[in-house]
Sequence to fold (345 residues):
Amino acid sequence: MIRTKKILVFFSLLFLITTVSAAENFYPGKPEDTNANTSIKGFSPSPYFNEQTLSFNYEPEIKIEINAPGASEFNPDKKVMLAFYALPNMNTIAETIGRKVEKGDDWHYNIQHIGAQTRFLRNTIKDYNLVVVYMGTDENSWPWWKMRHPGGDLITRHIVDSVKNIFKNYNVEVTLCSHSGGGEFVFGYLNSLSSIPNDVKRISFIDSEYYYSDSLKYGGKIVSWLKARSDHYLCLIAYDDRDVIIDGKNIGTLDGGTFYRTTMMKNRLAKDFELKDESDSLFTKFTGLNNRIEIYLKSNPDHLMWHTVLVENNGFIHSILAGTPLENKGYAFWGPRAYSQYIQP
Fold:
């Protein structure tokens, strides 16, 4: 068994080295024209909303699509915010981006709209280029993928590094964001590091805290990272999933859901930071470090499933803007969709 695991790790790393080398050689990140028209080498114009995209497979069994502002909108003199978005379980990249749906279309296309929320953010934030990196697996589950690939943590680290390399000629900052099982990608990345790099400016979990563990030192790494710089932000969003009732059956768990794990994270943070309770009838909310820490736990008196609605109700927008002067400007977290005009056909 031990020998078999070593062989699996060896081949995972072999795939990794090959893929990283190819990415570095083929996608040097140099613009075709650094003046008025910044077409990033390797990217293709999108038919939607003046964007440019790059899609590729990353071994083993990973799909990546990078969405950047279009050539006329990408300003090489501004910072590049690379927002890594680890996909939720059972959703494809296309479904996560979202589109307008007609009768008979798959409902998954209408529940997240990360593409439209990204366009809202680009229209709101003027001081950097927002680039979203969609990351999914062949079986549409990061937890399942990690179970099958013993070298998975190191692979997640090299995914981040190789995508950063594409934009190496720009001033790059990183945001780590996830929904649902996508949180396992973020925790895998944290597990691969002794400390979180300072160019990671924001970490956001949207109901994706399932795999948080004090014993794996995630909390300590996040605490050290928050202390390292005053421009590091943490946003945790979850709901009370302990007593969710579907078809008359309670499908919640007391210690395996995001409510329990987010509470664990909050308690760990409270050992080092003063957290202010700002709760109301909708949310149990805690803030700290001048709002650089924001924790939202949606109340659930009707025992409903709010897992995806946390994203749909401007959750991705809020995960990027929480704690900044643009928080709740032009949108409201848990309010109506602020991005409807940006949904692609």
